[in-house]
Amino acid sequence: MTAGGERRIRDLYSHGLLLTALVLVAFVRPLFGDAAPGVSLLDSAFLVVLVAGATISRESDFPLAPVHAAAVVTIGAQIVLELTRWEPAIFLFIGGYIALLGAVAVRIGGTLFSTRRSVTTDVLFGAISVYLILGIVWALAFVALEMVAPGSFHFAAGTPARADVFWRFLGFSFATLTTLGYGNVAPATRQGDAIATAEAVVGQMYVAIVIARIVALQIAAGGDQGAARPEGDEPPA
């Protein structure tokens, strides 16, 4: 295989696997109950793919150590929860998960804003992955707030079962991120309002910044191609 072909494959699949895992967790995983066969294995596999996706992002200056440390904490807390159901481990799991997702998002974002990059499939996959990570992070933050201060959110259909709380907040998170708002879940306290508003603002800012960055990369790529053309060599009409 030629070097160009290998590069195209790498660009296509570097963040493609991570994006696939995020789509499965955000939109397919909620269709299955926590007691479904293989669900725990699927959740563990997602953590592995998450860390692998961050590792693949070679052009980021953000170190890998925080990613690996957060992954160890998250996986350790998950094991403790599975074996003992120790309540404090839930907060350790949520905190580790948020730290892990945040570190991965920062590392992948570094590839998007690298001056060495052009607009490739890998860049687009990475940008979408970070957007989905934002939705999952805020869902975890909503869960943590509701656990610390019960009643921070109002559920139109009544308080969901404990196993369904995260998935209800995940839907609410993406509805807030996209400023959709169905009204089935709503903040009921100042703290809930503050977190939900922050997500809506960050979601809109992220989309605007990413679009601007992609346009800038395209313009820069076009300028480089024009500069590389020999003087007097006019493009065909």
Question: Strand order of the main beta sheet, please?
Answer: 1-2
Largest sheet composition: 2 strands, antiparallel
pLDDT averaged over residues: 80
Measured as a percent range, the helix fraction is over 70%
Uncertain stretches: 227-232
The DSSP helix count reads: 8
Distance between the ends: 35 Å
Gyration radius, in Å: 21 Å
Question: How much of the polypeptide forms β-strand, as a percent range?
Answer: under 5%
Q: Order of SSEs, N→C?
A: HHHHHHEHEH
Shape, principal axes of CA atoms:
globular
Instruction: Please give the number of β-strands.
Output: 2
Tell me the structural class: mainly alpha
Main features:
two-stranded antiparallel sheet, 70% helix, 237 residues, mainly alpha, globular
What does this structure look like?
With 237 residues, this protein is an all-alpha fold. It is 70% helix and 3% strand. It is built from eight helices and two strands; from the N terminus they run H-H-H-H-H-H-E-H-E-H. It has helices spanning 3-13, 16-28, 39-56, 65-84, 88-112, 121-148, 165-177, 190-228; strands at 153-155, 185-187. It has a two-stranded antiparallel ribbon. The chain is globular and about 55 Å long. Mean pLDDT is 80; it is low at 227-232.
